[in-house]
Amino acid sequence: MSELRLVRLIEPDGSASGDDRYALPAPGELLEHYRALVRGRRFNEQASALVRQGRLAVYPSSHGQEACQVAAAAVLRDGDWLFPTYRDSVAAVERGVDPVEVMLLLSGDWHCGYDPMRHHVAPQATPLATQLPHAVGVAHAARLKGEDTVVLALCGDGATSEGDFHEALNFAAVFRAPVVFLVQNNKYAISVPLARQSVASSLAAKGEGYGMPSALVDGNDVAALTAVLGEAVRRAAGGDGPTLMEADTYRMDAHTNADDASRYRDDAEVTEWARRDPLVRLRAHLRAAGVLDDEEERAIAESAEQTAAYLRTGLSADSEPDPAELFAHVYAGPAPHLAAQAELLAAELTAEVHS
């Protein structure tokens, strides 16, 4: 088995890589991606601050992985589906979900604060890899109905150690489901390094065992990600089945605010990956190309700050919990046993008020 060659279109210093396998996206498209990267970075910073302020219970930041988030949302068409993990809040926002609604899961208000059907964004999955079979199911159903819907399923390197990962890829390959798997290899499953999870030459190489095309991409290069992901989406929409992609990236922040990353990685490693920052890389490229100037930078920063302010305001408002919501949206229609439980709770609450 030949080792996969990393796809990179923009070097860490911002220069073009000269990789002739894919065309570099147009300057205007790259500028839009840069706007999204800045917006995503500011979103991550604001959400992390809200944890410290007690407005969020926890936040798994995608700081350093924003290129994967932006690319995942950018390549999908209106009718396509995104299946995110708990770390993919930025991807959900870029897909059009209200930022405050995305964060309701992590504030403890709702399991899923947005309408998945409206946005074609599945609920963010906290258990590793459980969303992957669901993604394949949606893709397979679309194929059976003759639709050209494509499903993009996100996961991390830790998810590839789960049985759901194997089952999802095997089913997708056998039934040629129109699904693209994007593994964001950020090097750690909480504190477990990749070397303790797999000895394969790459996670993307696992695609050969399932009989599907695979690609290894620089996960901090949004140009390479959109080029390769875009091709995989077009391939799936055309009826040519699934693709496995591995994005080589890094989680700059700790796993969550409850994690002490210094216990399992050193500062030198973090510093090295900081030099490959996706936002800094694209900024250097656009500056050198004359596409980005100081005035445009200020406008982009101001727009990102407006998103942060909206998130801050929305999550700083106290909400009045409604106990009846425990029984809403559990099933498509009313279930007798839940109706009985709802009546019992209502009676108990009424009695408590009058006692």
Automatic annotation (TrEMBL):
<dbReference type="InterPro" id="IPR050771">
    <property type="entry name" value="Alpha-ketoacid_DH_E1_comp"/>
</dbReference>
<comment type="similarity">
    <text>Belongs to the BCKDHA family.</text>
</comment>
<dbReference type="InterPro" id="IPR001017">
    <property type="entry name" value="DH_E1"/>
</dbReference>
<protein>
    <recommendedName>
        <fullName>2-oxoisovalerate dehydrogenase subunit alpha</fullName>
        <ecNumber>1.2.4.4</ecNumber>
    </recommendedName>
</protein>
<dbReference type="InterPro" id="IPR029061">
    <property type="entry name" value="THDP-binding"/>
</dbReference>
<dbReference type="GO" id="GO:0000287">
    <property type="term" value="F:magnesium ion binding"/>
</dbReference>
<feature type="domain" description="Dehydrogenase E1 component">
    <location>
        <begin position="41"/>
        <end position="306"/>
    </location>
</feature>
<dbReference type="GO" id="GO:0009083">
    <property type="term" value="P:branched-chain amino acid catabolic process"/>
</dbReference>
<dbReference type="GO" id="GO:0003863">
    <property type="term" value="F:branched-chain 2-oxo acid dehydrogenase activity"/>
</dbReference>
<comment type="function">
    <text>The branched-chain alpha-keto dehydrogenase complex catalyzes the overall conversion of alpha-keto acids to acyl-CoA and CO(2). It contains multiple copies of three enzymatic components: branched-chain alpha-keto acid decarboxylase (E1), lipoamide acyltransferase (E2) and lipoamide dehydrogenase (E3).</text>
</comment>
<dbReference type="Pfam" id="PF00676">
    <property type="entry name" value="E1_dh"/>
</dbReference>
<keyword id="KW-0786">Thiamine pyrophosphate</keyword>
<keyword id="KW-0560">Oxidoreductase</keyword>
